[in-house]
Please model this.
Amino acid sequence: MKTKVPELEALVNRVEKLERENRWLKRLGFVAFMLAAGLISMGQARGSRIVEASKFVLKDASGQVRAELGTAEDSSPSLVLFDARGSNRASLDLNKGGEPALRFETAMGKPLAELSVAVDSPRFSLFSPKGDDGVTVWTAKEGGSGLLMYGPDGLRVGLTDRPGKAFALKFEPNGKPKSITEWSLEGPTLQLFDPERWSARFGVTAIRSDRTGETSQTSAASIMLFDKEKNVIWRAP
Model:
């Protein structure tokens, strides 16, 4: 049989993409209004003059740099705040595509929190001080939301939903799904995976035939076995 479960494959790809995006979280950010207020006050003191520069550096009484406002090589703006020892503790920036990110980190450079937007989809992430554990809450542009929990070995558990459906996912240390539980209006479904990506699915399943292109739905009492290419190799009833 050459039948597959396309919706499940799309869900797994979406979660794996989100995990890859979260790995680059190295810095964290805070707020820009303090520096902006200072620039406004300076401008007001001199009438309506406009202050222009490619970079602004704010220092304390001892000469220590405490904040920097500037642009990167791709013209992306950023504001970075430093503690008294010169460690980057907070940052606010826009990437080349205009997507904002607010980040916070420890004095040792470990991420603590991030509020960001990717493709018009907001997400909020929290991390332990050691950076080994964390959680991400997100919403999707096309609808739905989710929650991902991380451990020292990577992604552990995920909860996500779409209109009319909800999913709970358990992951292997390599980030691949180990089990997926699905709740929908049609009924519940449980799918289990082995390290080679062979899987077994119990409950309601909507499948599409590659030969005819037609979609059919099994009953809640069905069992389906898939090879690692996601083709059905056995089913009952």
